[in-house]
Amino acid sequence: MNVKARAKINLSLDVLGARPDGYHEILTVMQPLELHDKMKVEALATGAIEVICSHPDVPSGPGNLVYRAADLLRSECGCSMGASIYIKKNIPVAAGLAGGSADAAAALKALNKLWGLGLEERQLLQAGERIGADVPFCLAGKTALAGGKGEILTPLPSFPGLGVILVKPSFGVSTARVYSLYDSSPAGPGPNTGAMVSALEKRDFEAVAALLNNVLERVTAALHPEINEIKKALIEAGAAGAIMSGSGPTVFGLCRSPGEALSVAARLELPGCRVIVNETV
Ligand code: ATP
């Protein structure tokens, strides 16, 4: 079975506080992108789980989030089947685009079918939550307001067809490190999540672009000032708005259409960065 694992961006991201379980309480508007990893998932009667990933920085085998997802699903359901999973990585890694979570979610869905487990969406969401905070969103696969540690999802109207220019600097960042620095840095102004939600409900592109906001951006930008330079370059090149996604370091610019995004990307001069022109779905 061939499946797609889609990347996400955060149109707004607020951190409400640290939780006793080590996670943070967040409030974020998440939007899936057309950009995806391609996965080939097959059931194996031998009981072995084999995960191979095309990217040199991502482990194959038990270190891969997909392996953990398959193993957890199997033991939860008392299933003795195995799986062979190949991941062709297109989503930049350790980039704030939930690539690993997307792969894990796609594997859960595919294995539920291939192993004939018959789990309902609610049960898959519960399994996904145990693998990672972004996995439930990736399983649902639709624009949503995410609360809790990211697993409490309220569907929002999607805004498909917007142009997105993703700019990934050459370095990655650790999500855990960004959150820990966030905790020790003074609080700053947060996003207006309610206004972002109503901008999406009204399909008001100008408002969505103006309301892009991520409280983690200043933390990652303090470590890597390139973040601010990329934002500035995107706006100067004609993006309607620009913000860092998740814990970074990918910064994205938003445009009314993919065509406009292509023109903006053509004007960018950001040596060392990977630039991907994409769109919302
Ligand atoms: P998030 O936005 O959810 O914080 P991210 O986009 O910042 O995630 P990922 O690309 O998911 O980060 O990768 C984070 C780490 O997880 C990497 O160091 C990577 O080696 C590891 N990893 C394990 N499995 C995968 C996978 N299938 N795809 C990507 N990374 C994986």
Short description:
With 281 residues, this protein is α+β, with helices and mostly antiparallel strands. It has helices at residues 65-77, 99-114, 121-131, 135-140, 175-184, 193-201, 205-211, 217-223, 226-236, 258-267; strands at residues 2-18, 24-44, 49-53, 82-88, 144-147, 152-155, 163-168, 213-214, 241-244, 251-255, 274-279. It has 2 domains: 2-155, Ribosomal Protein S5, domain 2 (2-Layer Sandwich), CATH 3.30.230; 163-279, 2-Layer Sandwich (Alpha-Beta Plaits), CATH 3.30.70.
Show the helix and strand layout.
Elements: E1 2-18, E2 24-44, E3 49-53, H1 65-77, E4 82-88, H2 99-114, H3 121-131, H4 135-140, E5 144-147, E6 152-155, E7 163-168, H5 175-184, H6 193-201, H7 205-211, E8 213-214, H8 217-223, H9 226-236, E9 241-244, E10 251-255, H10 258-267, E11 274-279
Parallel strand pairs: 1-8, 3-4
Antiparallel strand pairs: 1-2, 2-4, 2-5, 5-6, 7-10, 7-11, 9-10
Bound molecules: adenosine-5'-triphosphate.
Structure overview:
This protein is of the alpha+beta class and 281 residues long. The chain folds into two domains: 2-155, Ribosomal Protein S5, domain 2, CATH 3.30.230.10; 163-279, GHMP kinase, C-terminal domain (Alpha-Beta Plaits, 2-Layer Sandwich), CATH 3.30.70. Helix content is 36%, strand content 29%. The chain has ten helices and eleven strands. It has helices at 65-77, 99-114, 121-131, 135-140, 175-184, 193-201, 205-211, 217-223, 226-236, 258-267, and strands at residues 2-18, 24-44, 49-53, 82-88, 144-147, 152-155, 163-168, 213-214, 241-244, 251-255, 274-279. Strands 1, 2, 3, 4, 5, 6 and 8 form a seven-stranded mixed beta sheet that branches. It has a four-stranded antiparallel beta sheet with strand order 9-10-7-11, sandwiched between helices. Helix 2 (99-114) crosses helix 3 (121-131). The protein binds adenosine-5'-triphosphate (ATP). Adenosine-5'-triphosphate is lined by residues 53, 57-59, 64-66, 87, 93-101, 103, 134, 175, 246-247.
